[in-house]
Amino acid sequence: MTPAISIKDLYKTYDNGFEALKGISLDVAEGDFFALLGANGAGKSTTIGVLSTLVRKTSGSVQVFGKNVDTNSYETKLDLGVVPQEVNFNHFEKVFDIVVTQGGYYGLPVKLAKERAEKYLRQLGLWDKHDQQARNLSGGMKRRLLIARALVHEPRLLLLDEPTAGVDIELRRSTWEFLQEINRGGTTIILTTHYLEEAETLCRNIAMIDAGVIVENTSMKSLLRKLHQEYFLLDLREELSEAPVLDGYNCELKDPAILEVALESNQDLNDVFAKLQALNIQVKSMRNKSNRLEQLFVSLLQKPEQVA
Amino acid sequence: MHSLPLNYKLTAFKTIVWKEVRRFLRIWVQTLVPPVITISLYFVIFGNLIGSRIGEMGGVSYMQFVVPGLIMMSIVTNSYANVVSSFFSQKYQRSIEELLVSPVPNYVILAGFVIGGVSRGLAIGVIATIMSLFFSGLHMHNIVITLLVVLMSSIVFSLGGFINAIYANKFDDITIIPTFVLTPLIYLGGVFYSVDLLPDFWRLISQINPIFYMVNAFRYGILGVSDVNVVFAFMMLVLFTVTLFVFALFLLRRGKGLRH
Which of A35, A298, B14, B118 has its CA 20 to 30 A from that of A26? Predict the structure, then answer.
């Protein structure tokens, strides 16, 4: 099957000499929900910018559904919907007008553009505000308006550049559900995000980019399998004065009643409980110390050779 | 290179124009009221009070002479102002990106903004013409020439506003050109006097001023009097239009100030 996105040896050097992309290559399959992760300035937004033509590449080739963006610019743009990192609509326009106008840019007749605008504004919980100026929306609603605007022409590929930045958790989760629904309907989605939980929850495949270079490009499952260690926090029934010594495990007392245990991928949590039981230490509850992907992200960007 | 179907382009064009018209109608207190007040003051002070002491100019009363120039001045300044402020604002708040990521061809974007500017110019032109009826009777020597000149002049200045907006990086940059270039061109373009009154050197200088041709061709359309051959004036207008259109398109294609 033709990939939704095919990027080959993409370089971008800005006018000030900053090399944002240093020869990245990437394929994203049609129908995928793909995460592009990286620290600030890693090159994520530049990649999205090149795909959406807002950034001019220095060299390399970019294809969208098998069509070269340089030679088939109009056709490839018809297939793209872009949700930018920053809110970029006219705040004095009405919510409904913003979406309908975008439909007009994609050649939708007014009647159809209005129908689509209503459909997506309803789905994103913005219909109640459709007659208000966009400046009256909350930050989270503005970001959802960006998504409605990007979907009005029903693109085959949706580019989301940090779509839930600054959005509260409740709204973020409902946005995730909406995006998963869109993706199930066949729309390919490429997502950049700072919320690693977001990528882990939504995306099937992932690329990590660091200083303009892709350091990892694989499925989410196989990436998470590369985790060597996972940290657990155990809430103890009784307080301890010092961490117990468990043979083969690293333990640290984070608090008199909270014990942190590091588990290698080949170790067994039952064994930890058995050893604690032997020392007459009762565990009340247990939780992951942090997001698993976050651990991997940090380790990949700091010491790529350890997880390769 | 493939192209979009014509109906797509037409829809996109209408969308841009309607968005521009909606914008200047929404802020009518800023866009429509001030020009009306300004033109009224010009009619009262230059036409009525001072004009009555000047007598005839170019074979007609000073009031009759000055009305076409004032109407044209309103049209071109408002066409320019509409495009420069709208395009720069969209660039500044980055809402122009919604257009740039879409498949709308550059020439459609340019045409949409220009016709938006022309719409405001014509709206002001109509209002100014109605205002002039309170001070002077409306005589129409050649309506075709009059309308053509209005249209072309408005297009030229809309294109000028577009180019100014592309180069502008801050709000100061969209006021510098109107203040230091446009205003002197208007005042030296024969709006308030016949260039026959000027010394030879300044009369020659006037001939590189686009407003000189616009005002005189428009005056010819209304009064039948002009300081310059009307055919030559039209040729100059076509030259200005084509040059500015090609240059604006070149800047858009390069993504000057728009794409990184």
Answer: A298
Chain B residue with the nearest C-alpha to that of A85: B94
- State whether A148 and A159 are in the same domain: no
Ordered alpha helix ranges (H), chain A: 44-52, 73-78, 95-105, 110-123, 139-151, 169-184, 196-202, 220-225, 269-278, 292-302, 304-307
Mean pLDDT for B11-36 is 91
The answer to whether position A177 is within a domain reads no
In this prediction, residue B102 carries a pLDDT of 92
pLDDT tens for each residue of A203-236: 888 888 888 888 888 888 777 766 667 788 888 8
For residue B94, the chain A residue with the least C-alpha distance is: A88
Contact B194, B58 (CB under 8 A): yes
User: How far B103 CA lies from chain A's nearest CA (Å)?
Assistant: 5
Tell me, what CATH number does A283's domain have? 3.30.70.1560
Residue numbers of the domain that contains A123? 91-154
Shortest distance between the Cα of B38 and any Cα of chain A, in A, equals 27
Q: Indicate the pTM of the whole model.
A: 0.81
Mutate to test the interface with B, among A51, A74, A157 (most CBs of B within 10 A): A74
* Pair (A47, A160) in one structural domain: yes
